[in-house]
Structures are given as structure tokens and as C-alpha cells.
Amino acid sequence: MNIKEVSFNRDSYGNVLGNPVIIAQVKSWLRVMLVNSKEGVFGEYDPHDPDDINFLKCDIQIFNGVKWDYIEHGRFSTRIPAFSPDETIRTAIACIGHTFRNFTREEFKKNDHKKLIEALSYIAPKHVQ
């Protein structure tokens, strides 16, 4: 698996800014990305609310021969805060990528990944330490 760091630039709150932040090329036709879509605890992240947390979102894409397509049910929020240390973000993307390393295109087409993605939406820094 090849991991490419795209942007670990930070805003004044310490949140990573990149979209994507980091990409894991799991297979030649499969990649997962962590992005900062400014998703908070209760919807859109509010940096002025001290109780809100800016979580990273994961996108799973399949290469169709011409371009990268998002897969159905392949976008989900994580519990990885955007202000997490770089190493936590690197470890999280590696864990998510390794989870899908044995999947085939056919399994993605049949939505065999849906329950796994539901479970991965709870991934948090304590799971990747």
C-alpha cells in the first residue's frame, strides 16, 4: 500500500486543511482518502463552539479506467479529529486501507463493504494508537 501525504497544513485552530489530507493507494484500482469536510459533532463544524469537534471524513474511490469514482456508501465520517497529530492521521489511513486490501471490485459492486464502513465510522484516535 502506498500512502501519499497531500497536506498537513493547519489553520489557526490546529485543524488540517487539505482536501484530501492523505491518500492510501490500496490497490491500483482502489484508494481511500481522509478529507477535512468540516463536519462537526452535530453537522457542519462550528469553530466558535468550544464543544464542537472538526472530524475527518473518509472517501473510498475505485478507478474506472479513466477517472476515480466514489463508490456507493463509500463516504463516511470518522471520529478522527482534524486537529489530531500527523502520526495519528497516518496510522488511521493505514488502518482503513488495510481493512480493504482483500476486497475485490465485485464485492464493492455488491455493497459487501457497507457494514464494514458502518463500523469504521467509529474509528477514533484510541483505535490507532
Report on this model:
This protein is of the alpha+beta class and 129 residues long. It has one domain. Helices cover 20% and strands 36% of the residues. It is built from three helices and six strands; from the N terminus they run E-E-E-E-E-E-H-H-H. Strands 1, 2, 3, 4, 5 and 6 form a six-stranded antiparallel sheet that branches. The model has no long low-confidence stretch (mean pLDDT 87).
List its salient traits.
six-stranded antiparallel sheet; 129 residues; single chain; 6 strands; 36% strand; 3 helices; alpha+beta
Structure in a nutshell:
With 129 residues, the chain is an alpha+beta fold. The protein contains three helices and six strands.
Helix and strand arrangement:
Blueprint: E1 2-5, E2 22-27, E3 30-40, E4 43-44, E5 55-63, E6 68-81, H1 86-99, H2 105-109, H3 114-120
Antiparallel strand pairs: 1-2, 2-3, 3-4, 3-5, 5-6
